[in-house]
Amino acid sequence: MTQYLRGIYDAVASALKGMRITAKHVVRKPVTLQYPDERWVLPARFKGFIINDTNLCDGCLRCAKVCPVDCIYIETMGKGKDRFMHRYAVDYNKCIWCGLCTEECPTFACQHSLDYDHALYDRRRLVYEFVDPERPVPCHKERRQQMGYFVEQVAAAPPDPDRIAKAPRRADLPEAAPGAGGGEGGGS
User: Fold this and answer.
1) Quick count: other Cβ atoms within 10 Å of Cβ 40?
2) Digit-coded pLDDT (tens) for 90-102
3) Which of 22, 124, 182, 187 could form a disulfide with 70 if both were Cys (CB 3.0 to 4.6 A apart)?
4) What pTM value is reported for the model?
């Protein structure tokens, strides 16, 4: 009989303990965010999608050479002062977010952004073009100065977190035509 009453006591105590936990969650502020309207605040060192600020990039090819999966396509034409970068593209189908390209970039043009959500129906749209072929970017320092591009060589200054936070998100960029630039580039 004692064991029977003890079992009833344990069942009621267990149910009350569970109800107490449930009651705490009724009055507690929910932790679930209403994505995509609400988003988590990401840390400054978050490794989102790679972005390239073409105003800073001089087409040195270091990022493409250090990339272990060859997901950065850079195409330049000309030599010396007449060298222009016609294409800078990142294939996010291949990118492994290792960050080697950002560490190698001498001008901090290549950086991780805080953008991470790119839901697409067509994988070919994950090749992002950063240079308009109609408006090639000069690579030579003097030509860059003449055309008003940023030319200061930054030795060891870390990238400005505000600049990264203000970088355009994929949702803010105009739609690229599917398959545009999706072919195999030189990778170097």
Assistant:
1) 9
2) 999 999 999 999 9
3) 187
4) 0.63
Q: Which two tokens stand for residue 9?
A: 């006591």
Residue whose pair of structure tokens reads 């002062």 in the numeric block: 81
Structure tokens that stand for 106 in this block? 């001498």
124: amino acid identity, one letter = R
- CA torsion, ordered 106, 68, 100, 63, to nearest 10 deg: 20
